[in-house]
Amino acid sequence: MSEPHAGDHGGGDRIRLRPARREDLPHLVPLLLRLKRLNEEFDPLLKVRADAEEKAAAVLAADLENPQSVLLAAEGSGPDHGKLVGVVRATVRERPFYTPEKEGVILDIYLLPLYRRHGVGEYLLGETTRRLAELGAGIVTAEFPNQNEIAGKFYAKRGFRPITALHAKTL
Amino acid sequence: MGGTARSPPTDSAEPSSAEAEANQTLELGRRAVRLARFYHGKMETVPTVPVRSLEDFSVWYTPGIASVSEEIRQEPDLAFELTGRANTIAIVTDGSRVLGLGDIGPEAALPVMEGKALLFKTLGGVDAVPIPIRVKSAEELVETVLRLSPAFGGINLEDIASPKCFYVLEELARRLPIPVWHDDQLGTAAATVAGLLNALTLTGRSLQEVRSVLLGAGAANVVTARLLVALGHDPHLLSVVDHKGILDAEREDLDELSVRNPWKYRLALQTRGGGRRGSLADALVDADVLIAASTPDPNTVRAEMVRSMHPGPVVFALANPVPEIWPATAREAGAAIVATGRGDFPNQVNNSLVFPAVFRGVLDARASRIPDEIVLAAAQELARHAADQGLTPEHLLPTMEEREVFPFVAAAVATEAVRLGIARRKLSHEEFLERARTRMARPAALAKALSDAGLIRSMPEEGNR
Predict the structure, then answer these.
(1) CA pair distance B367, B358, nearest whole angstrom
(2) Which of A4, A128, B89, B120 qualifies as a FRET site for A107, CA 20 to 30 Å off?
(3) Residue A90 Cα, gap to closest chain B Cα (Å)
(4) Is CATH 2.40.110.10 the right assignment for the domain spanning A8-157?
């Protein structure tokens, strides 16, 4: 797999996205946890559990082993070269009843606040989508908390629309 | 900040007198309650027109008044000309953060709003109507003020909790064609910046080069930071510190802030902690300036922290009623200049120096809003006036006795509104100055006439007066 820069997106001037390596995992865990804590801000049903850190480590390690998963690390550039500033998790799922038959699901995208904007989101989405397509996905979807309006607007602006809804109730 | 009472400056009050201070506050409170019972409110409405006989009402009221309404219907801005709208503002609160009392609700906020109305009238010649509102959300507050606005030439937001106050001010300023002000943000920040400009002059520093620490990231300091950067302060030499430490761009709670307090979030990204991480002590090492607007506790900033600052630092400890460090302690630790929010120490950073004159200015110019340029114009005029009177480490800002500064600040504000193209009435600086002087002189003349006639009753005998 190539390790491209952003090209004309502009975002890749600030960060570089590459497949995660095992040695990245300790740095990716806190980034993933930051995202989950942000999700908690949007909805109490997304309350982060006490052992989330251990779970994050396990989930990321499993992603690395899974050929259907995309796990990307975002590295800073310039003075931040080599520093991990973001993480992307995505996976390809079978759609037994619908076409296209394979769905690339963007599960988690997190970037440290300082590295956001300036076309970086565009770059992350483009790179992730490209890799999901390489794994055979014919449709790309994104999961995020319903209350996260910023995420909703980000995807809507790029041609995404809601197709299913996840309604929840605590038991 | 905000207190206008002033007794002769003294340096002796400090830890040992904390008890005396508390006793004095208690006594003032008892007196306020006694006088509130005696006077039943601090303001009343009084006609501005003669009523010689009942027939005059057919001009002041129906049928004659219908023609005035008709004119305003044709041209709504004529309300500023043909009614009292141009000199009338609303003092709006939801009672969510009243003084140091917290969320006490709209009824309990009323006496404070009446007091503010009295200050507006006495110091600025502005007719201010106290309007505490029962609302649950910031959106409701905004909607309510929007609906009330046709009666007013300006809106003064008061005692609204942070960060709700940022949203309410931004939203109202965006949607209303009249000036909107929140004193806890803009008034305090303007007075702080005015004092700081002179403190830097006195200590031979340039705003472009100093390293500053803002302790507290509430209403006042969020705006102070914005104004300092607008004046040329390097944001990367500015550390904002709150109860969790330095607000750096990678702090754990930053994502939470992006949702709950985007103003503070943006400040974190803009300043990046001033290049530092850690605690207040870490931020202060080698800093030139500390502006504390945080917790009323004299041990918040310790002497050794001041000692770690760049030699001869500027220390503003603005919490009320007790500063974050006692002035004498700060000076003993090397501070070249100390300011507080209190009138009984030198250098009171007092927003009462700002809001009456700012409203006088924007109302006289019939400005449509109050952008930061206007806030800075007020701050710079205050600074200039204090400098004209002679700067010393004990005289950074005009005191409340230097009342002659008010019309100058008003005229500077109005002139800036004209320059920015947001004034409906474009007069010269001289004309604005004259108008402000006339308007500001009127309340004293009124009060004297009413007192002489016995219509404002003398203070009842209270033993100590």
Answers:
(1) 11
(2) A4
(3) 21
(4) no
